[in-house]
Design brief:
It is a single chain. The chain is α+β, with helices and mostly antiparallel strands and 76 residues long. Helices cover 53% and strands 21% of the residues.
Length: 76
């Protein structure tokens, strides 16, 4: 999972998921609903501290780690 984050100062203005698992039909199914929800929650929270999505644990964890890394780099 890899996200690209756009900031305006310290405010997150855009999150784009640029890499995510698509190997199986199940991966594609989970990500089709999980990624938009994660994006919406992260934009509202303005952080990687967001609720997990039931049934999408690995997607959620990968998303949070990638987002936190991007936030940390932007604040460095």
């Amino acid at each position: 999972m890899q996200v690209a984050v756009t900031f305006n100062g310290k405010k997150i203005t855009k999150i784009q998921v640029v890499e995510y698992p698509t190997e199986s039909g199940r991966d594609r199914e989970i990500n089709s609903y999980a990624i938009p929800t994660l994006n919406q929650e992260a934009m509202s929270a303005q952080s990687a501290n967001i609720d997990g999505i039931s049934g999408a644990t690995y997607t959620t964890e990968g998303y949070q780690q990638s987002l936190q890394s991007a936030i940390d780099k932007a604040n460095a």
